[in-house]
Amino acid sequence: MNDFLNKCREAIGAAFVLTDPADTAAFLTDWRRRFTGKALAVVRPGSADEVAALVKLCNQFKVPIVPQGGNTGLVLGSVPDESGKAIVLSLNRLNRIRAIDTINNTMTVDAGCILEHVQNAAAQADRLFPLSLAAEGSCTIGGNLSTNAGGTAVLRYGNTRELCLGLEVVTAQGEIWNGLRGLRKDNTGYDLRDLFIGAEGTLGIITAAVMKLFPQPRAQLTAFAAMQTPDDALKLLSLAQEKCGAALTGFELMSDFCLQLVAKHFPHMRPPFPQNYPQYVLLELSDSESETHANEMLEAVITDALEQGMIEDAAVASSIAQSKALWNLREHIPLAQAEEGKNIKHDVSVPISRIGDFIRATDVQLQEQFPGCRLVTFGHLGDGNLHYNVSPPEHDPADAFIEKQEAINRVVHDSVHRFDGSISAEHGLGALKRDEIRRYKSEVEMHLMQAVKRSLDPLDIMNPGKVV
């Protein structure tokens, strides 16, 4: 492989072909630090042309490629296996914001741009880029597109797929497809863009994208509501949608145990109520008219919800600081879980109308089979996405509980399937769920996916062992 590595150095510069273990370590371990792979090298191209040159070399030498953005994935999609045969192709040097068009409401960005930087660039142009998720300070646009990331604003703006108008992609043969068209209507054949979005780098490497921008809202209001059951939360969701329409941009559900964990590990963070309730919802409105109009809508929702017995109490943020404090409660749930210790995570979706039934049925099954397990249930109720995580009983050894992961996954995923849901809502399949998905997709669907893979990547060098 020395010949291959030397040609890589010639293509992109020796400084950007990393082989020393001290230099490559950060690229080989997954975000949760549960798995470390091996790689022939980590390569860091600086342009789409350099990416294409590297892919052509990989074709010539039959070297697998693992594309990587911010390496914030949770399903082992952006790290190599333990064979040491692949290269990791990091896109973090492709970090230019190429253009902002405030008339067309689009931004053209390199795939390695950090999500938070894209949000800030949009704000400086008096526009909103609405994709928002916990890893936004580290994750990249290319990774967001490759996993079709969701986040907290899907209810109003959709997943990353809905926010993208065009792509630049290096194919598995090392050709560059320039599809950077900022068009909202383009009915000229197969939608190649949608093939690459959500493909987790298994069909080609996204190097740039045209993303949608939106006008900055004139008012953003946040409220926190307490209730008895997820069914009450669903009733509140229907009421809020009826009264607020598209102004409802966030609707997050979290159980009391989630906030108990937050308070335990971050004592300065507590719900804004004098007593605990079984369930909570965080609502956010983004209004294009005025703060007065937004307040009127939110007051109408809260008043009606209290009168109809949907909620027990509610608090409305009266300042940016209070709004951030409420969002911090939601955003610190994963951090509190990490502080509590190892747990078994599930990123699932079910039809919104069936969420209450799913939670009840699955809670009962898990408690019957794994008595004392603690359920950390939270997520984006407005789009049907739950992070349905299972922690060990309080005084049980975490490692022994993690050994039951396969059995616990079976209970949860079978329940998801019964409720017509998906075992991966926004994290993707990666290597972690690649075999698991075969239990729930039909042979027809799997054969179609495999046919696409064989057609676009006949040598199977693009992120092999992931997705299909």
TrEMBL record:
Belongs to the FAD-binding oxidoreductase/transferase type 4 family. SUPFAM superfamilies: FAD-binding/transporter-associated domain-like, FAD-linked oxidases, C-terminal domain. This is FAD-binding oxidoreductase. Its cofactor is FAD. InterPro entries: FAD-bd_oxidored_4_C, FAD-bd_PCMH, FAD-bd_PCMH-like_sf, FAD-bd_PCMH_sub1, FAD-bd_PCMH_sub2, FAD-linked_Oxase-like_C, FAD-oxidored/transferase_4, Oxid_FAD_bind_N. GO terms for biological process: respiratory electron transport chain. Residues 35-216 form the FAD-binding PCMH-type domain. One of its GO terms (molecular function) is FAD binding. Signal peptide: none annotated. Keywords: FAD, Flavoprotein.
